[in-house]
Amino acid sequence: MNTSKYPWWLSEVVYQIYPRSFQDSNGDGIGDLPGIISRLDYLKDLGVTMLWLSPCFLSPMADNGYDISDYRAIAPEFGSMEDMDRLIAEAGKRSIKIMLDLVVNHSSDEHIWFQRALKDPEGPWGDYYIFRKTDRPLANWRSIFGGNVWEKAGDYYYYHTFHRKQPDLNWDNEKLREEVISIVRWWLDKGVSGFRVDAITFLKKEDFSRNYPPDGADGLANVGAFGQDVEGIGGYLTELKREAFDYKPCLTVAEAFGVKDENVAHYVGEDGYFDIIFDFKAADLDYAGEWYHRTSWTVKDWEDKIMHDQLRTQNYGWCANFIENHDQPRAASKYLKEYADRPEAVKTLGAMYFFLRGVPFIYQGQELGMVNFKRDHIGQFDDLSSIDVFQRGLAEGRSAEEMTGVLNLRSRDHGRTPYPWDKSRYGGFSDHKPWLEMTEEYPAINLKDQIQDPDSIYSFYKELICFRQKGKWKDCLRYGSIERYTSDNAGDSRGAGMDQVISYVRKYGDVKLYCWFNFSNRPVTVRLPCDVAAENEAELAEISWHTQDKVDIAGDVLCLRPWQSVVLRAGI
Ligand code: GLC
User: Fold this and answer.
1) Does the annotation count 189 as an active-site position?
2) Assigned CATH class of 8-106+174-213+224-376+419-461
């Protein structure tokens, strides 16, 4: 079939790097751009084709770089602009593209624009931000990192969705929008091939005069619950796409919390504001509103959330598939819980999301099956959001012990610990004490051990990427449609039920792939669909791919082993 009608980026496998924690090259305990350059051969060998770098721009680092004070400069701890140019060039030589993080809902309060604005909130720079002359906050909205969204500055208050050191930019101001467009074009001219667009659903603000029912002891209401995808946002985003992203070919992926189902069509697809968007309903299935309001979820709840996004998006475009990022705990710990250290379970987790419809994203260390750490007290945490949640939990009457437990499940630091290249002190990340403690000081999970082991999680990820990129069914995996699929339980009633299995079908032309992923430590027997089952074993549909040694099929019954993934091609 002719695949040229599909977007080029459906062939990408994106790997996210948190520069601070990937590889230190100058012994200051902080990862940097030369460190990334020194690991490009590793990334090439793994098979990824694009690197998304979390922000490495000039920043006071209140939120580790998501507070930018100069969009056209590199933070000195990460290197120089020459290093960035070299990274783009060296990655290019290996056919690896670079995606940058575009953080333009807010800047740092140390950005020169804000510094000037503070001096004259009524003047032209003041209009780059959202200032109001008032003696109290306009409403009771809680910012994402705690406290009211309105922060006092002299006779004025300014608005921040996130931390008070991250004042929101005023997208109603045409001059500000022109600045952003010119920043995007400037980086495209430098040779970057994509943008991950931060917190973009917050650009348009709700009516400031409106109070919401408080949802916490502080009397405030979380702005995340009502302040996203607000009507009118489309004007800004249409312009951003037309004037900035369409300037040169690039892949845009938006961090898009809170996009309403009926608005997905506006966000993705050929006419969408972005190419693809991250949806967070599956990633955040373990809590309700607050990290300390834990949910008890089932495999079916998880599957429902995944498929909801897959199916709503399929009508218009493609998904951005991920299980980890720098804001999330480690996926093995979150989804597999007490089985997080079972390699076969981690592999099935990897395969399940990797074969979904859309572009796969891998977060650094995920390919090793990294797990959450366990810390004893709040002083061991760096992430400002963790510290805020801890304090709010205490204010709600929870104990420090309970809240430390919550952070051990949910802190954003889990994904930010230094990359464990080997077992040496500081894991080969640095020869200096790292800025954040390693997951373990002498890592049990490390690349050096895994790279030598053909059965390791690393080797599995490499194979997974290769299967998607070069395997026999690559067109189906890249371009095929997706459907839910629920088989009937068959045979052995002592096994676990289908409610422990995530399954779906991918279809492209005359290729139809049935995919099953057993998320149970017990076998599950599945009655095969009639286009797969056959009386005669020789006529059985092709076994396309599986984890573990063997696929156990007898007649029309497939027995999935504990934590096994199986992909079967339907007979023709
Ligand atoms: C996004 C980023 C997160 C950051 C926040 C504010 O959610 O992923 O790390 O703290 O935006 O920029």
Assistant:
1) no
2) alpha beta
Instruction: Answer yes or no: 255 catalytic.
Output: yes
Residues in the ligand 1 pocket, defined by CB under 6 Å: 63, 66, 103, 162, 198-199, 255, 326-327
- Written as tens digits, the pLDDT of the chain (572 aa) is 788 899 999 999 999 999 999 999 999 999 999 999 999 999 999 999 999 999 999 999 999 999 999 999 999 999 999 999 999 999 999 999 999 999 999 999 999 999 999 999 999 999 999 999 999 999 999 999 999 999 999 999 999 999 999 999 999 999 999 999 999 999 999 999 999 999 999 999 999 999 999 999 999 999 999 999 999 999 999 999 999 999 999 999 999 999 999 999 999 999 999 999 999 999 999 999 999 999 999 999 999 999 999 999 999 999 999 999 999 999 999 999 999 999 999 999 999 999 999 999 999 999 999 999 999 999 999 999 999 999 999 999 999 999 999 999 999 999 999 999 999 999 999 999 999 999 998 899 999 999 999 999 999 999 999 999 999 999 999 999 999 998 877 755 566 788 999 999 999 999 999 999 999 999 999 998 888 765 544 444 566 777 777 888 888 889 999 999 999 988 65
Cα dist from 213 to 40, 139, 202, 287, whole Å: 50, 11, 20, 20
CATH 2.60.40.1180 in the chain: give the residue spans.
485-569
198 Cα distance to chain centroid: 11
Which amino acid type is present at position 78?
Answer: F
pTM equals 0.97
Q: What's the angle, vertex CA 413, arms to CA 304 and CA 111, rounded to 5? A: 105
Q: Indicate which atom in ligand 1 lies nearest the CA of residue 105.
A: 12
Sign of CA dihedral 133, 134, 135, 141: negative
* Atom 9 of ligand 1, nearest CA residue: 327
Residue whose CA is at the smallest distance from ligand 1 atom 4: 66
Question: Which residues in the chain are classed under CATH 3.20.20.80?
Answer: 8-106+174-213+224-376+419-461
| The two three-digit tokens of residue 526, written as one number | 């599945």
* C-beta of residue 525 within 8 angstroms of C-beta of residue 557: yes
Residues 6 or more apart whose Cβ sits within 8 Å of residue 455? 343
Q: What's the CA gap between 25 and 39, in Å, rounded? A: 11
CB 487 within 8 A of CB 527: yes
Q: Looking at the domain that runs over 485-569, which CATH code has it been given?
A: 2.60.40.1180
Angle subtended at Cα 308 by Cα 305 and Cα 312, rounded to the nearest 5 degrees: 150
**Strands of 40-154, DSSP E:** 50-53, 57-58, 70-74, 97-102, 131-133, 141-142, 150-153
User: CA–CA separation, 551 vs 572, rounded Å?
Assistant: 20
